[in-house]
Amino acid sequence: MAEHSERSGNKLREYSEKTTRRMTDLDPAGLVLDRAPDRARRQFMNYAFFKLDPAFRRLEPSEIEAAKDEFAAVVDKWAGREGFIVRSYSLVGFRADSDFMIWRIAFDPAEFQAMQRELNRTRLAGYLTQPYSYLSMQKRSIYVDRYNPEGAGVELMPGQGAYLFVYPFVKKREWYKLTPHTRQGMMDEHIYVSAPFEGVRLNTSYSYGIDDQEFVVAFDANHPSEFVDLVHRLRFTEASMYTLRDTPMFTCKKKPLRELLDDLA
User: Fold this and answer.
1) Which of 2, 97, 158, 261 is buried deepest, with most CB atoms within 10 A?
2) Could you read off the pLDDT of 245-257 as tens digits, one per residue?
3) β partners of residue 218
C-alpha cells in the first residue's frame, strides 16, 4: 500500500491507496484482445430540460391547475413503473433558457419516447419547449479509482443531493492519443484533488455514438459552494487541459414535481 502526506496550511492530509484488483486498461480500443461487444443490461439516462411559454400564466387559474394536475399524473404514473426512475428539478431563477428538468433512467431508451409521447398529449406540453435533452448510458469507468478500487457500479440510484449540477462533456482528441498510463496518471491527480469533497457525488454517464457529447456529468450535492470550490480546484489539474467542451452548465434544485410546477405558474 502506497502512502504519502500532503501539507495544506498547517494541516497534514494523509493519503493511502486501497488495495485494488483492477489495473490500468492497456488495450482500450480492444485491438489486442479482440473483445466482443458488451451486451450487458445497463441503464440509459435522459436529462430533459423544459422551458415554459409565458402565455401559460395568462390562462385562468382553474385551467392552469388542471393542466398541472394532468402533466403531474403522467409523470407520477411513469415514476411508479418497475425499473424506471424519475427525478424532477427546478431551474426557475437559475437560467433564462430552462425552467425545469426531468431526469429519466431506464434499461430501454425507448421508454423515454413512450413517456414523452404521453406528456406531449397533455395541455401543459402545448406551452413547453425543450431547449436541451441529453441521452447517455451508465458504464464502469476504465480508470482505476484507488479510493474506491472497484469503481462505481453499472446501476445508478440518482438524486441523493438537494442540488444536481449537470453538463455535457467532450474531451480533446489528443486525450485519446496519450498512453493508457499517462491518462491514468492524470486521472489519479483528478481523483486525489476531488477526494476531500465527500459531500459531492459524481454520476458520469457515456454518450459515445448516441448523442453529440461524449459524456454527461452530473454531480449530486447539498451545498453549491462545495461544488464551486471543487470545480475551481479541478481547473488546475493536468487533465483539465484536455477538455474541449463542458458547457452549458445547469444548476438544478431537486423538488417534488407538484412543487416544481407551482414554480412555473
Assistant:
1) 261
2) 999 999 999 999 9
3) 166, 203
Secondary structure (3-state) at 94 = coil
The number of beta carbons lying within 10 Å of the beta carbon of residue 166 is 22
- At what angle are helices 180-194 and 224-234 packed, to 10 degrees? 150
Domain covering 44-136+253-264 in this structure, CATH number: 3.30.70.1030
pTM value is 0.87
pLDDT digits (tens, 9 = 90+) for 128-182: 999 999 999 998 888 866 656 555 444 556 778 999 999 999 999 999 999 999 9
| Contact status, residue 74 vs residue 118, Cβ threshold 8 Å | yes
Q: Parse the chain into domains and list their residue ranges.
A: 44-136+253-264
- Interatomic CA distance for residues 194 and 237, integer angstroms: 11
Provide the grid cell at 210. 448516441
What is the torsional sign of CA 111, 117, 123, 129? positive
Sign of CA dihedral 222, 226, 232, 237: negative
Whether residue 91 contacts residue 49, with contact meaning beta carbons closer than 8 Å, is answered with yes
Per-residue pLDDT of 221-249, as tens digits, reads 999 999 999 999 999 999 999 999 999 99
